[in-house]
Write a structure and sequence with these properties.
Radius of gyration: 13 Å
Helix content: 40-55%
Shape: globular
Number of domains: 1
Structural class: alpha/beta
Strand content: 15-25%
Number of helices: 5
CATH class: Alpha Beta
CATH superfamily: Response regulator
Length: 127
């Protein structure tokens, strides 16, 4: 699966990307939302992991914009943040994101959460 990771924190982005690469995902990275839509559609990205706190646009707003595009409806979207889980979940629901993962749980939960989100969004069997 091709996954785009968007996080302005270099260490957090490397942690997410490294975790996903170890699980066999093909990972692309961006430090901001700028260029995300273009990369998603040009590289046939299947899932996006977005930090909620980006310098140019909140991750939940980016998720909403992606969902508004017909080509973004099958995109699995997972929001990550250091914010409290209940707040993160509210943002994800409002943005029509598929799932949330607290940054403290990246190593343990992200892979399974991403697979489940992709399967739910596309109906595809887990890979």
């Amino acid at each position: 699966m091709r996954v785009l990771v968007i996080d302005d924190d270099d260490i957090a982005r490397e942690l997410v990307a490294g975790t996903l690469e170890q699980l066999g995902y093909q990972v692309f990275e961006l430090p901001t939302a700028i260029g995300a839509t273009r990369m998603i559609f040009q590289r046939a990205i299947e899932a996006v992991v977005i930090d909620v706190m980006l310098p140019d646009m909140n991750g939940d707003k980016l998720a909403r914009l992606l969902r508004e595009n017909p080509r973004g409806r099958k995109l699995a979207i997972v929001l990550i943040s250091s914010r409290p889980v209940d707040e993160l979940q509210r943002l994800a629901t409002a943005a029509d994101a598929d799932a949330v993962v607290p940054k403290t749980d990246i190593r343990t939960r992200l892979g399974l959460t991403l697979r489940a989100a992709h399967q739910s969004r596309t109906g595809a069997a887990p890979r």
